[in-house]
Design a protein that fits this description.
- There is one protein chain.
- By secondary structure, the protein is mostly helical.
- The mean pLDDT is about 95.
- The structure holds iron/sulfur cluster (SF4).
Length: about 375
């Protein structure tokens, strides 16, 4: 039976058919897709949409992750990375260490992006970030600064007793070019109350992202699923992002990734016993393509938590971006995840194996 016939005879057929005709699934439709076991059928439709836009091109970026401090006072129950301020393993990189890491990565790998993320460290003033960003931009002008989650921006604002808009504005002047989507997790406060009760609310995350967009700072949107959320919560998360994107157009990419429970409080207290694995990843990638197609330009596959084989499959299920090389990643590696950095040539090889054309991009998804 052809894919069109299979789709039309499936109980989610009309939703997939509408999506193939350019009509976004409604929130109810999205819930039905999430509840469906027809993952491969959903993926077929999502793959068609992705190939219509990108052919068989898959982008990736040479980048490093600069986890500048693991000191954090927010104690998220899903996090294996942070340490309290007085802990023996607590660290904060100095400006010269940051410079040295970026210099080495530029010289060795020709990186195009530094992804800067760390804990909520109350000892760090805004000048720390300003000096780091302006040093990177002035010394390595081809390296984009993609930095600080909305919750880190909120922490800096609280330390400086000023607004998040003012913090974003100063950091942009210093060299910040785009904002990663971390800190969203699931944009439902009932979920946040369980997994990260001290972190910013869902509305705060959306407000800070809107502020960033208003200043001309584009962003990624992420979703960390696979812990205590329901499918309805995922719908709420995805459509909160739809509504903001319809207003601002500031999101460049959507990146779903699954919660890794190892070494976290959520695992220790028995709330989550295992990760969700690859099949769920494919479902999330495919539904993201159906929901965001034509609205958020790029859907990124997640090799970081599910490995390179699943990321290859995700390209057929609606993703068009393979993400970054992530040299120096220290957050997910604390959970013992399989591999937390790749070289440029391994990504290229993996994309070619999947039958796609690997294309390097910059921080703003321009092909190089
Ligand atoms: S996820 Fe971020 S804010 Fe939460 S504990 Fe870890 S480092 Fe701190």
């Amino acid at each position: 039976m052809s894919i069109t016939k299979q789709i039309l005879t499936s109980d989610i057929g009309h939703i997939l058919d509408d999506a193939l005709q350019g009509r976004r699934p409604s929130e109810d439709d999205c819930l039905r897709l999430l509840e469906s076991d027809d993952i491969h059928m959903i993926g077929e439709a999502a793959g068609v949409l992705a190939r219509r836009r990108f052919g068989k091109t898959a982008t990736y970026i040479n980048n490093i992750i600069l986890n500048y401090t693991n000191v954090c006072v927010t104690d998220c129950k899903f996090c294996a990375f942070y340490r309290p301020p007085t802990h023996a393993e607590a660290y904060t990189l100095t400006l010269s260490q940051i410079r040295a890491r970026v210099k080495t990565a530029w010289e060795m790998f020709g990186i195009r992006q530094v992804l800067i993320q760390g804990g909520h460290n109350p000892a760090l003033r805004i000048e720390y970030y300003e000096e780091a960003f302006s040093a990177i931009r002035s010394e390595f002008p081809q390296v984009g600064v993609h930095g600080l989650s909305a919750s880190e921006i909120d922490m800096i604002a609280r330390v400086e007793k000023t607004s998040t808009l003012e913090v974003l504005s100063r950091l942009k002047d210093a060299g910040l070019q785009s904002v990663p989507g971390a800190g969203a997790e699931i944009l439902v406060d009932g979920v946040k109350d369980i997994i990260s009760p001290k972190k910013i609310s869902s509305n705060d995350w959306l407000r800070i992202m809107e502020e960033a967009h208003s200043l001309g700072l584009p962003a990624s949107a992420t979703m960390m699923y696979g812990h205590v959320e329901s499918y309805q919560d995922i719908v709420e998360h995805m459509y909160s992002i739809v509504r903001l994107q319809e207003k601002t157009g500031g999101f460049m990419a959507f990146v779903p990734w699954n919660f890794e429970p190892n070494n976290t409080l959520l695992q220790a207290d028995g709330t989550v016993t295992h990760g969700t694995g690859g099949l769920r990843l494919l479902k999330m990638i495919a539904i993201a393509r159906l929901v965001y197609d034509g609205l958020i330009p790029h859907i990124q596959s997640s090799w970081l938590t599910n490995g390179i084989g699943m990321a290859q499959m995700a390209l057929a299920y609606g993703a068009n971006d393979f993400g970054g090389t992530l040299i120096g990643e220290e957050v997910v590696s604390c959970t013992g995840a399989r591999s937390t950095e790749l070289t440029d040539s391994r990504i290229k090889g993996a994309v070619l194996q999947a039958g796609y054309v690997p294309t390097e991009r910059d921080n703003f998804y321009n092909m190089l």
